[in-house]
Amino acid sequence: MDKYGILKKYFGYPDFREGQEILIDSILSGQDVLGIMPTGAGKSICYQVPALLLPGITLVISPLISLMKDQVQALNQAGIHAAYINSSLSESQISKALRLAAAGQYKIIYVAPERLETYEFLQFAQQSEISMLTVDEAHCISQWGQDFRPSYVKIVQFIRHLEKRPILSAFTATATERVKEDIACVLGLEQPQMLVTGFDRKNLYFAVETPRKKDSYVMEYVREHSTESGIIYCATRKNVDLVCELLCTQGIAATKYHAGLGTEARRRNQEAFIYDSSPVMVATNAFGMGIDKSNVRYVIHYNMPQSMENYYQEAGRAGRDGERAECVLLYSAQDVAVNRYLIENKEQNPEHTWEELELLRERDEERLRTMTYYCMTTGCLREYILRYFGEMGHGRCENCLNCAKEYEQTDVTEEAAKIIACILECRQRYGINVIAGILAGATRAKLREYGVFDLDAYGSLKQLQEIEIKAIISQMVIEGLLVTSKDKYAILKVPRSADELLRGERRMIWRRAKQDEQKANASRPSSNGKVRRSDILNSKGLELFERLRALRTEIAREENMPPYIIFSDKTLVDMCVKAPMQKQEMLLVTGVGENKLERYGERFLKAIFDFAGGRREKYYFGDAGELAIQPESGGAGAASRGKKEDFYLLQKQAEAFPYAEKYLAAELAEKLNELRDADRVKKISGAEISRRMQAMGYVQEVVRDGIRKKVVSQQGMDAGLFLGMRTSKNGFEYEDIYYNIAAQRIIVAMVCEK
Ligand code: ADP
Asked: Which of 287, 322, 298, 293 is closest to 227 using CA atoms?
């Protein structure tokens, strides 16, 4: 069986997502890999698929016990023999698992890094064939990472003890350039295939709200989403307790998680959330690492987090299944003070010198500031996030609150010049509160103390409210017209770039949400969406969805499994769209592999049949169903049709194509993508190229033993496609489709705009 066969048979997916194929191909050819992909991008498949194709065992090092259990459950459900070995098992359970592992019972074994040192485990590893060692959450190995774990360093010693070095694959969701280098260096990756896929999570909708009463906002939001599962993050344990209690007294099945609760309570509450008996989780940031729940439909931040890294990681727990989900941050100025307090009182590592501590504090301050500006920006929120992580955004995403709002644009170049003049007159000694106070002509005691009433700038913007002046200053910082010092005082300074404005070469436009719009949004927290379930399914479809969901819950209870491990929401939506009547049709539903078909197919088919009364009916709107049934392409999920145009090359771009003796479809796609105008044109994926080849009859799909396999037709061979064998380092052979120069020319001509 090839990688496509494995993907369909065990995972039920027709195509790989962006990046997955390249990493899998590299692993199969014996190359080390380092994959940096955002949460929900599908890292697990990148090592699970090759693990099943490689001859021996794959060891997966993961720091998170809860994640191991979840992953192993999901693999077992899919019919894959996997196990985990960690401290949650008793000694005798561990010995048994190792005995079975040594007897070749498992293809994939998850272990905690601490385990690698134990005599028993090492003995097992030395006597077994370990084909691959996968390091999950690989950033933990770097001292520069946010959560460095000394136990990760043991991995390196462990590898040295093995007779034969396995292929190494490492994965993480976040890694700066430095951490990336660290991972490769510390783990000793040999000429690894590095792949960084975009940070954009297109199915996530972002919003920052400033409600007057956060509690009412949360209540209303949760009520409006009463059938859905969500997480509400709070900055402090106290807030967690309050918000959870508030929701519970209103009859909402909420639970909570923070470090102040006992281990047993935390475990119980976490399970209640995962198993959907309490679909709403109120928690501090202690919750979430290793939670793999795919159907979290919203993440609300009751307080602003301390950094964009934290925010994106926590918000990213929404919508892992690729379906639309919402990330709403409730901002209030007080959040900044709370976070500053938390930073100042953070537990210190006693090994750090005073200078290092200062440096770390400065970094924390800087991160907090960038986070605060996210809450203040009037530009596209996604753009802000992507830029922060070093990617170019597209100006407007049309899938965040700021893109949906209407703005009044006011030229405030003169006001900006007055702000700069004020900062200079004060000799760049004050932060935003004092400067705004001076410009507005405020009379509070502190300003008197500073003796600023005689300044020329005093009251020079008194026609504006202080809050408006602060908003302009914030926008100036975001646009680089002002900078702030890196310490906690955030003193405003005037950089060189401000000269352009003072010389009249640059204008400053202040974007301000229209008042009505603001109010409308405050009362409709979730109404400006893109593709959601109700956009795809008609009313009968939604009814069927509920029926299938109830069946899923029933099965989950019987089997003591989280519902999303049985089938994801996305799979249920696709089931409603395709409304399969027979087993073979059921296999076409995304997320239905052979094993799950075997286990649950009958019951779901019967539920659909009973619901439809044996008739074929359409449960989706117009062609909206296409959204759900289209295979994913280039990582863009169903809910994420951007504004960009489908892939094409201009004649001139096409001329630069680097023809080579042979390419795989994924390599071809990569070369083509490098030539396109990335701002306007979507990427093409290897899967898309294969699909087009299939549509042209060059590639045919044959089903053998119920498994799809792609073969080259005679016509395809004439065009220059050929099946080639690839050999992994371990001598394992497998087939793949290659494109020779003639075939490459056909594809380039096909995508070239005439
Ligand atoms: P990550 O580890 O990167 O956060 P996961 O491996 O948990 O992400 O994958 C996120 C979700 O995407 C899972 O529900 C997974 O089954 C799904 N997924 C992964 N690869 C594909 C694919 N090729 N097609 C469709 N869904 C996929």
From this structure: 298
**pTM surpassing 0.70?**
no
Q: Terminal CA-to-CA distance of the chain, rounded, Å?
A: 40
| Residue 112 to residue 491: CA distance in whole angstroms | 45
- Locate the ligand 1 atom nearest the alpha carbon of residue 39 and give its number: 4
pLDDT in tens, 167-217: 999 999 876 777 888 889 989 999 999 998 878 888 999 999 988 889 999
The strand order across the sheet containing 662-664 reads: 662-664, 733-740, 721-727
| Ligand 1 atom with minimal separation from the 292 CA | 7
Fill in the amino acid letter for 375.
C
Pair 168, 187: CB distance under 8 Å: yes
CA of 45 to the centre of ligand 1 (A): 7
Which tokens hold the place of 724? 């080639």
Backbone angles phi, psi at 139, to 5 degrees: -65, -20
Phi/psi for 111 (5° steps) reads -135, 150
Pairwise pLDDT comparison (328 vs 488), residue with the higher score: 328
Residues 6+ apart with CB under 8 A from 181: none
What is the distance between the alpha carbons of residues 244 and 265, in angstroms, rounded to a whole number?
Answer: 14
Q: CA 736, CA 668: separation in Å to the nearest integer?
A: 14
Q: What is d(CA 192, CA 408) in angstroms, rounded to the nearest whole number? A: 50
CA separation (Å) from 621 to 576, 589, 615, 638?
A: 12, 18, 18, 15
Q: How far is the CA of 326 from the centre of ligand 1 (A)?
A: 18
> Phi/psi of residue 436, each to 5°?
-65, -40
Q: What lines the ligand 1 site, CB under 6 Å? A: 13, 16-17, 20, 37, 39-45, 292, 294, 320-321, 568, 632
Q: Which residues pair with 484 in a beta bridge?
A: 492
Among 6, 7, 9, 11, say which to mutate for ligand 1: greatest number of ligand atoms within 8 Å of CB.
11
Higher pLDDT, 261 or 635: 261
Per DSSP bridges, beta strands 707-712 and 699-704 are: antiparallel
The span from the CA of 540 to the CA of 619, in Å, is 6
**Closest Cα to atom 24, ligand 1: which residue?**
13
Which residue is closest in CA terms to ligand 1's atom 10? 40
Instruction: Report CA(322)–ligand 1 centroid distance (Å).
Output: 8
Distance between Cα 5 and ligand 1 center (Å)? 17
Instruction: Give the mutation target among 6, 8, 13 for probing the ligand 1 site: most ligand atoms within 8 A of CB.
Output: 13
Q: How far is the CA of 261 from the centre of ligand 1 (A)?
A: 31
Among all chains, which residue has been given the structure tokens 């070239």?
752
Q: For residue 451, how many other CB atoms are within 10 A of its CB? A: 8
Mean pLDDT computed over 560-572: 89
| Ligand 1: residue whose CA is nearest its atom 17 | 42
| Strand 33-36, strand 167-172: pairing | parallel
Highest-scoring range by mean pLDDT, 13-22, 263-272, 642-651: 263-272
What's the CA-to-centroid distance between 11 and ligand 1, angstroms? 10
DSSP tag of 403: H
Q: Please tell me the distance between residue 591's alpha carbon and the centre of ligand 1 in angstroms.
A: 10
Read off the pLDDT of residues 241-273 as tens digits, 9 standing for 90 and up. Answer: 999 999 998 889 999 999 999 999 999 999 999
Whether 461 and 473 have beta carbons less than 8 Å apart is answered as no
Q: Output the CA–CA distances (angstroms, integers) from residue 190 to 61, 184, 187, 337, 475, in the order listed.
A: 19, 8, 9, 46, 45
At 735, which helix (H) or strand (E)? strand 733-740
- How many A from CA of 39 to the centre of ligand 1? 9
- How many whole angstroms separate alpha carbon 91 and alpha carbon 88? 10
